[in-house]
Amino acid sequence: MRRATAFAALALVPIVLAGLPLLAWFASAALAPGGSSAAPLAADGLTCTVRAGACVGSEVEVLRMSSTTNAHAGTPAGAPGYTYAVCCAADGLGTSCSGTHETVLALSGAGNAHVATTTGGAYTTEVCLSAPTGTLGCSTDDVTCGTGYACLAAVSGSTNAQVAGCDGADVCTTKVCCSVGEAGPPPPVDTDGDAFGDKVECYLPTDSRDNCPDVIGSDDAWPLDIDMTRDIDVTGDVFNYVGRIGATGGQASDPSCPADTPMWWQRLDLQPDCAIDVTGDVFNYVGKIGMTCT
Predict the structure, then answer these.
(1) Rounded CA gap, 71 and 48, in Å?
(2) Which residues contact 87 (CB under 8 A, 6 or more apart)?
(3) I need a labelling partner for 59 at 20 to 30 A (CA). Which of 9, 47, 142, 246 fits?
(4) Secondary structure (3-state) at 101
(5) Is the pLDDT of residue 44 over 70?
(6) Are 83 and 71 in contact (CB under 8 A)?
(7) Distances (CA, A) of 87 to 75, 106, 120
(8) How many CA atoms lie within 13 A of 83 on its CB side?
(9) 168 vs 82 pLDDT, higher one
(10) 176 with 116: CB under 8 angstroms?
């Protein structure tokens, strides 16, 4: 985001939220919103390929697909008739769901299955990657995989979803990204560079591909700019939290894209965790009052 700081130092702005004074606005404070911005580490040689047939060499078969686009899925044993196999390779890589492992996806069954990015409920058949040492890190909510992360497949949503190859140009736009080594889970993908990950902007929802409103008052692109005026101020943006601290919403704590315009609490939930609070949401404004975008 191309921003300019309107005033370099703002000593203290007391605001009353839910009846208590909030004494936290120092312009010199640096609180990064939207999660870590640390660069991911190398994938330590992890590679994944969709093959029409059997895996080759040291590759392990992770998943079977009925097609490379908009497909049903199955385990290697549960869907032997499916043509396409997701084959991955790295030193010591396996598919055990015990020991040092990551659950990559959950299936509604061993074959002819829909997929989910979380286990539980009707999706109890786990698809896993395992390694003898080190750390496995997988993410199932990225539009693209970061540097050092291998893409296993793409899915159309967080549950009741179809699956596709990573280059599939269909409804399967969310990538399943993994790394082997010391990387851990990859940081959030931030397409527009406004310090809020794409998943957070999907939830709010703001435009994850644009970091500044194109049309004042009607283009919700910068999560901090609630009134869509291209600048951050107390009265137009921060005052939206007055009297709303402690409010909660009804969605899950691991949200996916809402289908409709969100309730007011969801748009203010910058963390997001389906609750409006000072530390997780309001503190995103520390050091940002007076910033503008173009």
Answers:
(1) 18
(2) 48, 49, 50, 51, 55, 56, 59, 60, 61, 62
(3) 142
(4) strand
(5) no
(6) no
(7) 12, 17, 25
(8) 8
(9) 82
(10) no
Separation of alpha carbons 62 and 74, rounded Å: 10
Q: Give the DSSP letter string of 10-45.
A: ----EEEETTEEEE---TT----TTS--PPP---TT
- Cis amide leading into 205 (omega within 30): yes
Is the pTM for the entire model greater than 0.70? Answer: no
Average pLDDT, the chain: 77
CA 146/CA 150 separation, integer angstroms: 8
Q: Give the pair of three-digit tokens for residue 2.
A: 């191309």
Residue type, 49: T
Distances (CA, A) of 136 to 47, 128, 139, 198: 13, 10, 10, 22
Which pair of structure tokens corresponds to residue 12? 């203290």
Report the SS3 class of residue 120: strand
Scored b (16 or more CB within 10 A) or e, 148-161 reads bbbbbbbbbbbbeb
Among residues 72, 96, 94, 95, the alpha carbon closest in space to that of 83 is found at: 72
Q: Which residue has the tokens 């399967």?
A: 172
Spatial separation of the C-alpha atoms in residues 151 and 161, rounded to whole Å: 17
- Phi–psi pair at 64, nearest 5 degrees: -110, 145
Rg over CA atoms, the chain = 22
Q: Using the Cα atoms of residue 209, residue 186, residue 62 and residue 141 in order, give the sign of their dihedral.
A: negative
